[in-house]
Structures are given as C-alpha cells and as structure tokens.
Amino acid sequence: MSSLTNKHIILGVTGGIAAYKAADLVRRLRDAGAEVRVVMTRAATEFVGALTFQALSGHKVHLDLLDADAEAAMSHIELARWADAVLIAPATANTLAKITQGLADDLLSTLCLATKAPLCLAPSMNHVMWSDAHTQANIKLLQQGGIKIFGPTSGSQACGETGEGRMLEPLQLVEQLAQIFSTGSLQGCRLLITAGPTFEAIDPVRFIGNRSSGKMGYALAQAAAEAGAQVTLVSGPVALATPDRVTRINVESAAQMHQAVMQHIASQNIFIACAAVADYRPAQSQPQKIKKTADKLQIDLVKNPDILGEVASMSQPPFCIGFAAETENLRQHAQQKLATKKLHMIAANDVSSQDSGFNSEFNALHIFWPDGDVQLEKASKPQIARQMISLVAQHYSQNQTQKKIHEKNSTQDS
Ligand code: PMT
Predict the structure, then answer these.
(1) Cβ distance 192 to 236 under 8 Å?
(2) Which residue is catalytic, options 159, 189, 274, 320?
(3) How far apart are CA 284 and CA 102, in angstroms?
(4) Could you tell me the maximum CA-CA distance found in the chain, to the nearest angstrom?
(5) Closest C-alpha residue for ligand 1 atom 21
(6) 44 contacts: CB under 8 Å, gap ≥ 6
(7) Does 338 contact ligand 1 (Cβ within 6 A)?
C-alpha cells in the first residue's frame, strides 16, 4: 500500500500534446491505490477523447462548469471538497497564468479556487514558452503561494526542438504526488492507536458491541504513518485492510484491548484512543449457548478497565489524546473528560446523526486542549485524520520543548 492508497485525486488535463501521457497517468495513479476523477478543459479534448479517461478512471469525465446534469451528479463544490489533492498534468502556460491570476472561467480553474486540497502542477510546453519571463514570474508566484510544481524536465519536444519544458513521466509524477502526503512531522515518534469496537461475549455466539467501523482509527493510523511515525494499531473486530507500514494487533474484547495496550505502551511517545471500548461487559460469559427457555433474561454487567484513563495516569505517560463520542453537550462533556482523565488533547465527536461519526465515511471533530480548541469541519475521515495528525504533531512538539525547558530549569535549581 502506498501513501496514495484510498486518496481522492482530481487529475486536471489541459490542452497540450502531453495530454496523451495523462491517460497513462490515470492508470499509474490507480495502480498506486488512488481514486481518480478527471477534469478536462475543452482544449484538452482536442488532443484526447473524454471517453479514454472515463474508461481508465472508471468515472464520467467532468468537462463543463455550467452543465446541469454533471452538477446534479457531483457539483464543482462537492468535487473540490472530495479531493485530497488536485494534480494538473499537463499544465499549459495558459493554465499557469490563469491560476496565478485566480481566474475562474472554466470548471478546472474554478475548482482550483474552490478546493482546500493541495494543488500540484506539471508544466508542459515549448522550451521558449517555459523560459519566457512571464511564465517564470508566474511559476515563482505559484510556488510562493504553496502550489507544488512538478518538473518540467529537459529533452526533445513535440515541436522538434530540444530544451526544458517536457512534462515529467507518469511514474515520476505519481512518486512526487505521493510525497506530498508524507509530511515527516512525526518522524522518529512511536505512536499507538486503538480503533474499532470491542465485542463483549454473552455466550459463544452472542456479544454486546457497538457501531464503530474502525474507519476513523484506521485513517489516523495511516495519516500518522505517512507523517513518519512508527505506528502500532490495536484493533477491535473490523473489516478493514491494515494501512501500509502499520503494525496491527487484533483483539476482540475490552479486556484484550487493555492487555495489548498495556503490553506495548511503555515504549510509546503518543497514544490516541479512538476505539469505542465497551464500558461494561457481562459479569460472566456463559460457556454454552443460552437457551430460549425463560420469558425474561437478566444479564449482569461489570465495568471494564478504562484504558485511556489508566495510560494517562501512568507515572511517565505518553502524550495522550482521547475521543469523546457524545450525543449532547459536546463541549462540556469533552472538556470534563480532558480534565478528569488528565489528557493532553481530546477530540469531541458528535455522534447524534448518521451522516457523520459512527460507521460513516465522514466525520467532524471539535478538538480541545487545556488552553485552546479548534473545529475540524465535516470532511472524509482520511481528510479529518490528516488534519488531526498535523495538530497532534504540532502540540506534541510544543509539549516536548516545554518538557526540556522544565528539565533544564529543575537541574539548574538543584
Ligand atoms: O470507528 P468509526 O465507525 O470510524 O467511528 C469513529 C468513532 C465515532 C468510534 C470515533 O471517532 C470515536 O468517537 N471514538 C471514541 C468512542 C468512545 O467510546 O468514546 P467515549 O466518550 O465513550 O470514551 C472516551 C474515551 O475513552 C475514548 O477515547 C475511548 O477510546 C476511551 N475509553 C473508553 C472506555 C474504556 N473502557 N476505555 C477507553 O480507553
């Protein structure tokens, strides 16, 4: 699995001869695990037919801003929100100029303005156009604005001349795109995450469980690994593939999750408790299937260990981040859990509706720390996970700096 696995990539194709290479690029991106939606300018369709891209991407190609049918299927705003990254390949000199100026006169340029996803451009043009002062000034401005420029490279050109302006090869573009998801902000950190539900056995065939799918925890594990952390994922029973470079430990019950976490926690720098751990379990799990004889059945429940609480109260705890799944008084309950469990951060998760939170593709979080908070607006779980991991990395690094200052002061005092 590469860092493009499950990433939503919008591939913008503009009107240059290298558009034919963009067809291969779609295949390469999909081979790397990405889901690709293609947006073509009208000029691009003069070089390669939209049907080619439709067949290769498995999705209808997006062509026009003012197409009622296309907008009804997925509006340009939805498309902009869907994207984890936008890659324009080839990007013509005209496209570079339009994006520099913030023009929005077709679907692709409008998308570039409407998306918060990283924007990457793979220039492709005649070498004289590439070295022209206007193009170079545009490139400088685009880079200053945080836009990534992939290439171009030097070589023989379609016009018969030789020089700089050739688009990078599809595999090189895939490699460069994958790198934008590898932030390195948690390089050298060891991070343990719990994810998914726990199943508490009533008898050999029945259990008490919950609706957690594990998607949020797995997205966090993937984002943390992409940020360079060495990730251990303690997972309840879910039907998800293990993210790349993540060590997974499967458990079923809260007691097993507790045991696995406590066994591995001593060497960890960061702990994220995303699992929906059952607070109670049947006092006794029956060895045989319970028969349907009595009219009423009473099951006594006993409390499970509070894994997060126990980790956070260790003598030398890791940097601890909890979740608070709430259906009401989100802020109040989350802040209470942050304080009573002595956590560094807590992610309050409104789980009152079905289109976000438990078992949904989407989530929205309100993250609190002792002297601040930030709201992560509703987005796909991988997008939310990347935002949350970037925040965790920032706060963890501040925490480490404060610790060092504190240690230095205490040695000077003694
Ligand atoms: O898995 P998904 O379908 O993607 O859904 C994601 C999610 C909604 C499950 C996730 O985002 C989430 O909110 N997880 C926390 C669920 C929960 O059990 O919250 P809580 O408020 O009951 O628990 C508070 C915290 O204590 C949590 O960090 C929990 O992991 C931890 N806990 C709870 C009980 C227990 N015995 N041990 C614990 O460690």
Answers:
(1) no
(2) 159
(3) 65
(4) 88
(5) 324
(6) 13, 14, 15, 16, 19
(7) no
Domain with CATH 3.40.50.10300 in the chain: 190-409
How high is the mean pLDDT in each 10-residue block of the chain (414 residues)?
A: 84 96 97 96 96 96 85 85 96 97 95 95 95 97 97 85 91 95 92 98 97 97 96 98 95 98 98 98 96 93 98 97 94 95 96 88 95 93 94 95 84 76
Comparing C-alpha atoms, which of 350, 275, 336 is closest to residue 307? 275
Find the 378 Cα to ligand 1 centroid distance in Å.
18
Q: Are 47 and 120 spatial neighbours (Cβ–Cβ below 8 Å)?
A: no
Q: Whose CA is nearest to atom 24 of ligand 1?
A: 324
Q: Are 134 and 128 in contact (CB under 8 A)?
A: no
Q: Exposed, middle or buried: residue 129 (CB in 10 Å: 0-12, 13-18, 19+)?
A: middle
Give, as one character, the DSSP assignment of residue 341: T
Q: Please report the atom of ligand 1 found closest to the CA of residue 310.
A: 39
> What dotted CATH number matches 8-179?
3.40.50.1950
Nearest CA to ligand 1 atom 14: 274
CATH code: domain 190-409 is 3.40.50.10300
Ligand 1 atom nearest to CA at 326: 21
Token code pair at residue 298? 């009473």
Is 198 close to ligand 1, i.e. is its CB under 6 Å away? Answer: no
Q: Given this model, what pLDDT does residue 316 score?
A: 94
- Sole residue written with tokens 């997972």: 235
Rounded to the nearest angstrom, the distance between the alpha carbon of 238 and the centre of ligand 1 is 15
Reported as half-sphere exposure (CB side, CA atoms, 13 A), residue 279 has a value of 1
Mutate to test the pocket of ligand 1, among 218, 274, 328, 351 (most ligand atoms within 8 A of CB): 274
Whole-number Å distance between alpha carbons of 337 and 319: 15
Please, what is the angle between helix 19-31 and helix 50-57, to 10°?
10
Identify any residues that bridge with 347 across adjacent strands, giving them in sequence order.
Answer: 323, 367
* 189 catalytically annotated: no
Question: Could you identify the atom of ligand 1 that is nearest to the CA of residue 321?
Answer: 28
> CATH 3.40.50.1950 occupies which residues in the chain?
8-179
| Cα-to-centroid distance, 349 and ligand 1 (Å) | 9
